[in-house]
Design goal:
mainly beta, 52% strand, globular
């Protein structure tokens, strides 16, 4: 079950408590045509994760300001239902990055995967001085030792999630270079001209749909809503694998 690389999200992948929580029912379906503010602000969001429309577990996406222009974004996915729960699947991703000229420039990236009695860890270093990125640890043999030449604007999958929220505009075409886990892939997304209603439990969002295009058999769709600092829904399908959906059920953090 490949939960990770699609969560630019992926996941990508890709996450109401009582007091203090802003699980907003985004003001009566307010339009999302206005640009999402580019300034970052810390947040924590919880997603319910579905696999082929069946509950699979929960995910938490968190943005933390470590100091000055340096930030860290985390995504933790925990399997709590079915085989994922029995296997104790827990996937943790993290990217440390700097904000440079309004761009999100990755510094380090780490992934830890727990399942049954096995743990796999990978760590990536983006060396902008040398202009290369390299991963170590339990990385796929074909990528071990590979150095990827960096270009301005290169991002990890988690940073692309942030960039989609930042860059969403009616009818926009968005292009990024995904550099993550020893891989480089060009990503292109098409934002819808109009917004559409997205219901997550009892919460209604008026959101802009953003589809990844020219992605072969893979499919990634992200929905972003005005004044919500993270995607309200992430849909992913890798080839013949079952579809995964991350649905935002709560979040907290000041609007940027």
């Amino acid at each position: 079950m490949r939960l990770m690389h699609a969560v630019p999200l992926i996941v990508a992948c890709m996450w109401l408590a009582p007091a203090g929580l802003r699980a907003q029912q985004v003001a009566p379906l307010a339009p999302a045509d206005q640009a999402v503010p580019t300034a970052l602000a810390p947040f924590t969001g919880t997603y319910q994760v579905f696999r082929d429309d069946k509950p699979l577990g929960r995910a938490t996406m968190r943005l933390v300001n470590t100091t000055g222009a340096r930030w860290r974004i985390d995504l933790d996915i925990l399997g709590t239902r079915g085989l994922a729960g029995i296997a104790g699947i827990n996937i943790q991703q993290s990217t440390v990055f700097d904000v440079v000229g309004g761009q999100y420039r990755p510094v380090t990236q780490a992934t830890v995967r727990h399942a049954l009695f096995r743990t796999r860890k990978t760590t990536g270093i983006y060396d902008w001085g040398k202009g290369t990125a390299r991963w170590t640890g339990d990385i796929k043999a074909s990528r071990r030792g590979r150095e990827i030449a960096l270009q301005p604007g290169d991002m990890s999958g988690l940073l692309i999630n942030l960039a989609l929220v930042r860059d969403a505009r009616p009818g926009a075409t968005l292009r990024y270079r995904f550099v993550d886990d020893g891989r480089m892939r060009p990503h292109e997304y098409a934002a819808s001209a109009e917004t559409e209603g997205v219901r997550v439990g009892d919460i209604d969002y008026e959101a802009r749909r953003i589809d990844r295009v020219q992605s072969g058999n893979d499919r990634t769709v992200v929905w972003v809503a005005r004044d919500v600092p993270l995607p309200v829904r992430i849909h992913m399908k890798d080839g013949d694998d079952p579809a995964l959906d991350l649905m935002l059920i709560q979040y907290q953090g000041a609007t940027p």
